[in-house]
Write a structure and sequence with these properties.
four-stranded parallel beta sheet; 16 helices; binds adenosine monophosphate; binds zinc ion
């Protein structure tokens, strides 16, 4: 598997730190509002990469944080006259709803910054002890960028230019910085802000220290993949590297992955310019599977333009797969023979090329655009070769391939209708009768049909019992 690494600016062979395991951290949203469709891009693409790695047999430990203390959260809390936690908890819950509708799997752990303050204080203390951070007069703690020799290795920026440009983050105690590139690890509280006790002053952490600490706590000092949108390369990820590597004395992350930006009608998304959509806005017009499909139709590192036309194209593309699967299900319900014929077996062997080519595309830096084209080819194959008169085994083989590859992309292409208790009872009755008549093939088929719907049968002395899996 080849992954493009922002650190080396090259595709590199993926070699996990621990065989068979992947430790992955994805910077999550700041929760002060409903997430917008730009935020959905990293969620969808990195969830798809996780699913693909799981499909390849890796155990993936996937951590994604919620930034729940931040100026924007505090501002909104003050406007509404509530505690900041009311705002952050509200939007974490809303974000989780959107993730579910986008079929983004919950992370193994979703840490929240406010619950990890002790770990942040500890890491800042280590950095001060090692001489990589200093305390200004007002209690602000800064990271001393000059002490980290490799500062700039991720963003490949010319630091002297940056310094002379005087790029700085406006914070209290700004004038007490030793270098314009020094950044805040801890800052004193202001009136009306939440704060925590610390050895330096009552205050709150800077943004970057969050991810260094949460990544270390849940994944260890060295991780395989750290990911996020490309806007995070500098300064956020550059600063995370400086903090973590100075504090731990180890390489922080082996592969740095960044998704390109999503624009709307070829312009940067902006509320004031009126081209801004939340995921919720889109859900009023489209099934969110369409948004997921749209995001995966492009390479994750390319900029992606959102427009009504492209969403229509995505809707049609997804529809083509859904229609094919529905057709195959219809054929399956009406198939007259079970057993695969010689000719069908040949075709089924031919169709094995599609999953192989799907993997090839995904192994090449997760080329989901090509992987989806392979699903389309498979759909075309099904439409051409699987029709009336096909055996159930053949239909199932081709259908399972389409469903599996779609599932790796997180696309739900088979609508599972909830089976009613009365239907289950009727099928169990039919199975009993089939068994009595020694029609074991039909009896087994009914068992399988029910199993596919998540219904488990148990033959007991008192008769057949069933439960939903
Ligand atoms: P934020 O809440 O701004 O920290 O963003 C959360 C995640 O969404 C980060 O990984 C950002 O890089 C990403 N992100 C924000 N805006 C966009 C966008 N327009 N296109 C793609 N990714 C974005
Ligand atoms: Zn982060």
């Amino acid at each position: 598997m080849q992954i493009y690494n922002t650190l080396s600016r090259k595709k590199e062979e993926f070699v996990p730190i621990e065989p068979g395991k992947v430790r992955m951290y994805v910077c999550g949203p700041t929760v002060y509002n409903l997430i917008h469709i730009g935020n959905a891009r990293p969620m969808i693409v990195f969830d798809t990469f996780r699913r693909y790695m799981e499909h390849k047999g890796y155990a993936v430990n996937y951590v994604s944080n919620f930034t729940d203390v931040d100026d924007k959260i505090i501002k909104k809390a003050n406007e509404e006259g509530v505690e900041p936690s009311v705002i952050s908890e509200r939007y974490i819950a809303e974000c989780k709803k959107d993730m579910e509708a986008l079929n983004v799997k919950p992370a193994t752990t979703h840490p929240k910054a406010t619950e990890e303050i002790a770990g942040m204080i500890e890491m800042i203390e280590t950095l001060i002890e090692k001489g990589d951070a200093y305390v200004a007069q007002d209690g602000t703690v800064y990271y001393k960028t000059r002490s980290f020799q490799q500062y700039g290795k991720l963003s490949h920026k010319n630091l002297d230019d940056l310094r002379s440009g005087g790029r700085s983050l406006l914070v209290s105690g700004e004038d007490q910085k030793q270098d314009p590139l020094d950044f805040v690890l801890w800052k004193p509280k202001k009136e009306g802000e939440p704060y925590w006790e610390s050895p330096w002053c009552q205050g709150r952490p800077g943004w970057h220290i969050e991810c260094s600490v949460m990544s270390k706590k849940y994944l260890g000092e060295e991780i395989d993949i750290h990911a996020g949108g490309e806007d995070l390369i500098f300064p956020h990820h550059e600063n995370e590297i400086a903090q973590s590597e100075a504090a731990n004395g180890k390489e922080f992350a082996k592969y740095w992955m960044h998704n390109g930006f999503l624009n709307i009608d070829n312009k940067k998304m902006s509320k004031s310019a009126g081209n801004f959509f939340t995921v919720r806005d889109i859900s009023e017009r489209y099934d969110l599977q369409v948004l997921r499909f749209f995001m995966l139709s492009a390479h994750y590192r390319s900029p992606l333009n959102f427009s009504a036309d492209l969403m229509e194209a995505a809707r049609n593309g997804l529809e083509r797969i859904l229609t094919c699967v529905a057709n195959l299900n219809y054929l399956l319900d009406h198939a007259e023979s079970q057993e695969i014929t010689q000719a069908e077996r040949k075709l089924a062997e031919q169709a094995e090329e599609y999953p192989a080519r799907f993997d090839e595309a995904m192994d090449d830096d997760f080329n989901t655009a090509d992987a989806i084209s392979v699903i389309f080819e498979l759909v075309k194959f099904a439409n051409t070769h699987v029709g009336e008169g096909a055996s159930a085994e053949f239909i199932r083989t081709i259908k399972d391939e389409i469903v599996l590859l779609s599932d790796v992309c997180g696309l739900i292409v088979e609508k599972k209708e909830e089976i009613l208790d009365t239907d289950i009872e009727a099928l169990i009755q039919e199975r009993q009768e089939a068994r009595k008549a020694k029609n074991f093939a039909r009896a087994d088929e009914i068992r399988d049909t029910l199993l596919a719907q998540g219904i488990l049968l148990e033959d007991t002395r008192e008769g057949v019992k069933w439960k939903r899996a």
